[in-house]
Automatic annotation (TrEMBL):
Organism: Hyaloscypha variabilis (strain UAMH 11265 / GT02V1 / F)
Organism domain of life: Eukaryota
Domain named 4-O-methyl-glucuronoyl methylesterase-like: residues: 102-332
The protein, known as: (4-O-methyl)-D-glucuronate--lignin esterase
GO biological process: lignin catabolic process
Pfam families: GCE_fung
Listed EC numbers: 3.1.1.117
Length: 398
């Protein structure tokens, strides 16, 4: 690329990020009963290149924060961190571990929290790591560190009465628009690790995971923080890798599934603005969750699902991720996004049948091994593409 082309590119990126990708001030919502076109800017022009896609991602991110997740405030005024050696008890076992202790100060208020790091038993580091909301319920390879974050402490998620409760709101105030999923502190953990060579973590090889409500959170974390290389939402269902419109349709077809109307009243994962689109007005949202997932592209995403629980809206997840996959196809990296949906197991009990694809994603994206990560499978769901997708998949130039 020539110097002048490079300058044009940089300039465009800067403009995009300053302008939320150029969303006009008088932006108006338009009803769209199908899954919205991820490749269409709000001014009606088409995404044609991977640079355009980055710009469109700025728009999508802004729209999702505005209408669904609430905004993440800027970094706190100061952030300090240290590492202490400690132990944890599992039954009779005492296991050595480390605490990453973080202090964040903003406007005169300081909060402190810790995440515990379980390092690999061998090897030298810097180690790749998986940050797990609430601890992992998938197998983490032995050469990868696990960082356990008690995200409930940062933003509580017990019920609808949890809004504004948690360390995040102590720091930024109870009226911060950020929903619990926006507030969970993955970005602050990465900020801390980036300044701590002694933590011996390779911050260019980070994954994030969580199951169920924490799976929704893992998807959001991967979507909002570009430093995450691999995102692994497990059984996130409605509000995660399912699409609002498809869940509404699943419900209309007689299945008892979770919809946006229910979710915004059940808990605080989303901001109150979602209420505007309930009940069942989700066709006015200028995005759906295929586009939330698309904020991750071209980085790696493996969405793990379970058909055993109708409430999770399994058909919607399959359809939604089928639509999302087209974004990675357009970018020429279809193998960076995988979907695996199995049945016959309890919620969050990861089955052996899905282990090969999980191993492949860890090997390829955290351990730099050249393995094949192509996977898109379900045991019994279907999706009628022509009913839901009326856009073409462009071949984006680089
Ligand atoms: C799958 O995630 C949620 C689900 O959205 C809720 O409706 C239900 O109450 O809890 C699930 C969960 O987090 O289970 C642990």
């Amino acid at each position: 690329m020539s110097v002048s082309q490079n300058l044009v590119r940089k300039d465009r990126k800067l403009q995009c990020s300053q302008n939320f990708g150029g969303i006009p001030k008088d932006f108006k919502l338009v009803k769209d009963t199908k899954l919205p076109d991820p490749f269409l800017f709000t001014d009606g022009t088409q995404v044609q290149s991977s640079d355009d896609w980055e710009c469109r991602q700025q728009q999508i991110k802004e729209l999702i924060l505005r209408y669904e997740l609430g905004y993440l405030p800027p970094k706190p005024d100061s952030l300090t961190a240290n590492l202490t050696a400690t132990t944890i008890k599992y039954g009779n076992l005492t296991i050595p571990t480390h605490n990453l202790n973080i202090n964040a100060t903003n406007g005169g208020t300081t909060i402190s929290f810790s995440a515990s790091i379980q390092y690999p038993a061998s090897g030298q580091g810097p180690y790749p790591a998986v940050i797990a909301y609430g601890g992992p319920s998938i197998h983490v390879p032995p050469s990868v560190a696990t960082i356990f974050l008690d995200n409930d402490l940062i933003a509580q998620q017990n019920s609808n009465a949890s809004r504004g409760i948690g360390l995040f709101y102590d720091l930024y105030g109870v009226n911060a628009t950020a929903s619990a999923m926006t507030a969970w502190a993955v970005s602050r953990i990465i900020d801390a690790l980036e300044t701590m060579p002694e933590a011996n973590i390779n911050t260019t090889r980070l994954a994030v995971t969580g199951c169920s409500r924490n799976g929704k959170g893992a998807l959001v974390a991967g979507a909002l923080d570009e430093r995450i290389t691999l995102t692994i939402p497990q059984e996130s269902g409605s509000g995660g890798d399912a699409c609002w419109r498809l869940s509404d349709a699943e419900q209309a077809a007689g299945y008892v599934v979770q919809t946006s109307t229910e979710i915004v009243r059940e808990n605080v994962w989303f901001s109150l603005t979602v209420d505007e689109f309930a009940p069942h007005n989700t066709s006015w949202l200028p995005f759906d969750h295929h586009m939330l997932a698309g904020l991750i592209a071209p980085r790696a995403l493996l969405a793990i699902e379970n058909t055993a629980y109708v409430w999770l809206s399994p058909q919607s997840s399959y359809g939604c991720m089928t639509a999302a996959h087209k974004i990675w196809e357009a970018l020429g990296v279809p193998q960076n996004m995988g979907f695996t949906q199995d049945g016959n197991h309890s919620h969050c009990a990861f089955p052996a049948e899905q282990q090969p694809e999980l191993t492949a994603f860890f090997e390829r994206f955290l351990l730099d091994e050249m393995v094949d990560t192509t996977v898109f499978k379900t045991t019994n769901e279907t999706f009628n593409e022509t009913e839901w997708i009326d856009w073409e998949v462009p071949k984006l130039s680089s």
